[in-house]
Write a structure and sequence with these properties.
The complex is a heterodimer of chains A (134) and B (572). With 134 residues, chain A is of the alpha/beta class. Chain A has helices spanning 20-31, 45-55, 69-82, 101-106, 119-133, and strands at residues 7-11, 35-38, 59-64, 89-94, 111-113. The longest helix of chain A has 15 residues, at 119-133. Chain B has a domain at 73-410 and 422-473: Alpha-Beta Barrel (TIM Barrel), CATH 3.20.20.240. Chain B has a nine-stranded parallel sheet with strand order 5-4-3-2-1-9-8-7-6. In chain B, helix 7 (185-199) packs across helix 22 (539-547) and helix 11 packs across helix 17 (422-445). The chains are: A alpha/beta (134), B alpha/beta (572).
C-alpha cells in the first residue's frame, strides 16, 4: 500500500523578503519525499490560511525573520481555527527571541526552529508528528 | 592541482582548472618524494579534499609553479595605479584608515538618532542607516501591511518630518552618511537632501552613499516594488541628478553582500555584483551620460565571509576586473572610473544563535580579511544579531573590533601585505577567472536584466545555498557551537522593540496630515504622476513632493500607479 505523501506549505508571511531558509527547507523536505508548496513572498495570514485549505496541507512552515511573529502567528492560528484547519501542524523558523517561544507554543505553534537547525531535524520532527497523527 | 568532482564542477569553471599545467620544480618534486610522501604514509590528511567555504579547491602548498608566466607588473602592479590589485590608493590605510561605518537603525527616528550619536561619540567615522521593512517596501508606518513590522528591522521613516528627527544635532556636512534603501531610494535620498538644505549644507560638498541597487533586489534581497525597467529608470535618474548636483555623493552602492547572504559562493558574489555594476554603466551610457562623468560616483559593497583568504582574493580580483572592464569594454579614460571603491560588511549569515559570544571572534576575523583586502569602509556585526538587532553593548564591541584591528595589529602599517604570496596571487587569479566566466555567460544572455528575467542568478544562488546546507547537515563543514562543540546555554538579553513605535508613528502621521497642505501634496503628487509617464528625470519632482511632506507611501503609491508592481517567479 502506497503511503500518502505529507503535504507541506512553506510560507513567507509579512514584508520580509529573505527567503534563503524557506527555499532550502522546501527543497530538503521535497527531497525527503514530502509534497511541498512554496507560497512565495509577502503573504498575509489570510493568503496563507487560504492556500493551506486549498492545498489541503498537513503542515505549514512559516519563515519569519522580521520580528513580526507576535502579530502574524496569532492571526494565522485564528484563521486556521475559523477555517476548520485545527489539525494542521504549524511550524515557525527564523529569528525568534527565546522569551517569545512559550506564548507562541501556547497559541498552537507546534515547534519553533531557530537559526542553526539542521534540515534533518525538521524532517524527523514532521515525520514523527505525522506518524503519530496517522 | 586536485581534480574537482562532478558535483562541485559547476563552482570551478573551465578557466580555472586544467588550462595551465603545473610544472613542479625538481626541488619541489624531491620534497614531495622525500618529505611529504613519508608524512602522508604515516598520517594521512584530515580530509581527502580541502575546499573553501564556497567549495573552491584549496591545495596543500602553493609555489612559483602555481604562477607560471605570472607578470607582476601586469597582474599585481602598484597600489593606486592600474590594475589596482594592491589597492586603489598608493598609501591605503597608512594614509587614511577605512571609514568605521556601523549600520544602525531601529524604532523611531529619535531612537536611531540617539544610537547614531552614541556610535559617533565612540569613534565611528561615518553613518549608516537601517530602515524598517515598511519603509524599505514603500509603505507608511500606518499602512495595513506594516502591522507588526514598524521599527523592528530598522528605523521607521514615513516622511521628511521623521528624517529631520533622524539627523537632529548631526550636521550632514560634517559626516558621510550611507542609507540602505533600494526601491524607495530616490524618495529617501530626496528627504536627506531636504534635511541637508535645511541645515544649510552645500550639496556640492555633501558626501555619502545611497544603496539604490535594484538589480540585487531581484537577485537576492527581494525588496523590489516596481518591475525592472521603471526601477532602472529611477536609478539612472539618481545618477544624472548626482552628477549635476552632488558630485561627492555615491548615488549607488552596487552590492554583493546580499547575494552572498542569500547563499552564493564567493565567485558568484563577485561576478553578479560586478556584472550588475556593468549593467548600470551600460544603462547610464544609454541615457547619454558620459561614462567618465558618472562612473567615478559608483561605489560597491561586498560581504566579508569566514573563509579568510578566499575573501581577500575576492577583493583583489574585484579591483582588477573592474579596471579591465572599464578600459576594455567602455574605453574609459578617467582613472577615477577605474578604481573600484567598496564598503564591506562582515557576514550576517555566519552568525550563530548558539554560543553568541563566539560571533565576536567570527566578526573580528572577517573584518581582518576586509582590511587586508583593502576596503574603504567597514561595518562589523554585533554578537547578538542572530537573535535581534544589536544592543548598545554588543554594537560597542563590534566598533571596538575595528579600532583594535586599526590600532593594535600593525596590519595597516603596510599596503597589501599578502601581495606576492603564491597562494593569495593564485587564488586571486582563480577567483578572477571564475568571475569572468559568469560575466561572459550573462553577457551572452543579453545582460543582467535578461539573466534575472530567466532566473539565472537566482537559480545559481539557490543551488549554492542548498549545497552548503547539506554540507553542514552532513557535518562536512563544521560550524562551532552549532553542529559540533554544542552546549546548552542561557538566553541572551536582547534589544526589544515593541508596538509603541507603531502607535507613535500613527499619531505622527495623523498630525502630519493635519498640519500640511493637502492641496500642495495633491499638486506635487499629480506632477510626479504626470512626469513618471514621460522620460523626465523624476528626482526634482520627488524632491518637491517630499518638501510638501508627502509621505513615503504616498510617493511610492503614485509610482505604483504608473509603473505597476513586480512579482517574482519563485525558484526553490
Amino acid at each position: 500500500m502506497l503511503a500518502k505523501k505529507i503535504r507541506v506549505l512553506i510560507a513567507k508571511p509579512g514584508l520580509d523578503g529573505h527567503d534563503r531558509g524557506a527555499k532550502v527547507i522546501a527543497r530538503a523536505l521535497r527531497d525527503a519525499g514530502m509534497e511541498v508548496i512554496y507560497t512565495g513572498l509577502r503573504q498575509t495570514p489570510e493568503m496563507i490560511a487560504s492556500a493551506a485549505v486549498q492545498e489541503d496541507v498537513d503542515v505549514i512552515g512559516l519563515s519569519i525573520l522580521s520580528g513580526a511573529h507576535n502579530t502574524i502567528c496569532p492571526q494565522l492560528m485564528k484563521l486556521l481555527r475559523e477555517k476548520g484547519m485545527d489539525d494542521v501542524t504549524v511550524l515557525v523558523g527564523g529569528i525568534i527571541p527565546e522569551a517569545d517561544i512559550p506564548a507562541m507554543k501556547k497559541a498552537g505553534i507546534a515547534e519553533i526552529f531557530l537559526p542553526g537547525t539542521s534540515t534533518l531535524d525538521i524532517i524527523e520532527f514532521i515525520n514523527q508528528r505525522y506518524a503519530a497523527k496517522a | 592541482m586536485s581534480e574537482e568532482s562532478k558535483t562541485t564542477s559547476q563552482m570551478v569553471t573551465p578557466a580555472e582548472t586544467g588550462n595551465e599545467s603545473r610544472a613542479a620544480s625538481p626541488a619541489e618534486q624531491a620534497w614531495e618524494e622525500n618529505t611529504l610522501g613519508p608524512t602522508l604514509a604515516k598520517s594521512p590528511e584530515r580530509v581527502d579534499h580541502f575546499t573553501s567555504i564556497s567549495g573552491h579547491s584549496i591545495n596543500r602548498l602553493y609555489t612559483e609553479a602555481d604562477l607560471p608566466n605570472w607578470n607582476p607588473e601586469e597582474k599585481l602592479g602598484f597600489p593606486g595605479a592600474p590594475p589596482y590589485t594592491r589597492g586603489i590608493h598608493s598609501t591605503m590605510h597608512r594614509g587614511r584608515l577605512w571609514t568605521m561605518r556601523q549600520f544602525a537603525g531601529f524604532g523611531t527616528a529619535e531612537d536611531t538618532n540617539q544610537r547614531f550619536r552614541y556610535l559617533l561619540s565612540q569613534g565611528q567615522t561615518g553613518l549608516s542607516t537601517a530602515f524598517d521593512l515598511p519603509t524599505l517596501m514603500g509603505y507608511d508606518s500606518d499602512h495595513a501591511l506594516s502591522e507588526g513590522e514598524v521599527g523592528k528591522c530598522g528605523v521607521a521613516i514615513s516622511s521628511l518630518a521623521d528624517m529631520e528627527v533622524l539627523f537632529d544635532k548631526i550636521p550632514l556636512a560634517g559626516v558621510t552618511t550611507s542609507m540602505t534603501i533600494n526601491s524607495p531610494a530616490a524618495v529617501i535620498w530626496a528627504m536627506y537632501l531636504a534635511v541637508a538644505e535645511k541645515q544649510g549644507a552645500d550639496w556640492r560638498k555633501l558626501s555619502g552613499t545611497l544603496q539604490n541597487d535594484i538589480l540585487k533586489e531581484y537577485i537576492a534581497q527581494k525588496e523590489y516594488i516596481y518591475p525592472p525597467e521603471p526601477s532602472m529608470r529611477l536609478v539612472i535618474d539618481t545618477f544624472e541628478f548626482a552628477v549635476k548636483n552632488t558630485p561627492k555623493f555615491n548615488p549607488i552602492s552596487v552590492s554583493g553582500y546580499h547575494i552572498r547572504e542569500a547563499g552564493s559562493t564567493a565567485i558568484q558574489e563577485l561576478a553578479f555584483t560586478l556584472r550588475d555594476g556593468l549593467e548600470y554603466v551600460e544603462w547610464g551610457m544609454r541615457r547619454g551620460l558620459d561614462v567618465d562623468e558618472f562612473v567615478p560616483q559608483l561605489s560597491f559593497f561586498f560581504n566579508a565571509h569566514s573563509d579568510f583568504f578566499e575573501e581577500i582574493a575576492k577583493y583583489r580580483a574585484a579591483r582588477r576586473i573592474w579596471h579591465k572592464a572599464m578600459v576594455e569594454r567602455y574605453g574609459s579614460r578617467n582613472p577615477r572610473s577605474w578604481a573600484l571603491r567598496f564598503h564591506t560588511q562582515t557576514a550576517g549569515c555566519s552568525l550563530t544563535a548558539q554560543q553568541p559570544y563566539n560571533n565576536v571572534v567570527r566578526t573580528a576575523l572577517q573584518a581582518l580579511a576586509a582590511v587586508l583586502g583593502g576596503t574603504q569602509s567597514l561595518h562589523t556585526n554585533s554578537l547578538d544579531e542572530a537573535w535581534a538587532l544589536p544592543t548598545e553593548f554588543a554594537a560597542t564591541i563590534a566598533l571596538r573590533t575595528q579600532q583594535i584591528i586599526a590600532h593594535e595589529t600593525g596590519v595597516t602599517s603596510t599596503v597589501d601585505p599578502l601581495g606576492g604570496s603564491y597562494f593569495v596571487e593564485k587564488l586571486t587569479n582563480e577567483v578572477e577567472a571564475g568571475a569572468w566566466d559568469y560575466i561572459q555567460k550573462i553577457d551572452a544572455m543579453g545582460g543582467m536584466v535578461a539573466a534575472i528575467e530567466r532566473s539565472y542568478p537566482q537559480r545559481e544562488i539557490a543551488e549554492a545555498s542548498y549545497r552548503y546546507q547539506m554540507e553542514i547537515d552532513k557535518k562536512e563543514k563544521i560550524i562551532v557551537g552549532v553542529n559540533d562543540y554544542v552546549t546548552k546555554e542561557k538566553p541572551l538579553d536582547t534589544l526589544q522593540i515593541d508596538e509603541t513605535v507603531a502607535v507613535r508613528q500613527a499619531e505622527r502621521l495623523s498630525k502630519l496630515r493635519r498640519d500640511r497642505s493637502a492641496e500642495e501634496v495633491a499638486r506635487q503628487l499629480a506632477a510626479l504622476r504626470k512626469a513618471a509617464k514621460t522620460t523626465e528625470n523624476l528626482m526634482p519632482y520627488i524632491f518637491s513632493a517630499v518638501k510638501s511632506y508627502a509621505t513615503v507611501g504616498e510617493i511610492c503609491d503614485t509610482l505604483r500607479e504608473v509603473f505597476g508592481t513586480y512579482e517574482e517567479v519563485a525558484i526553490t
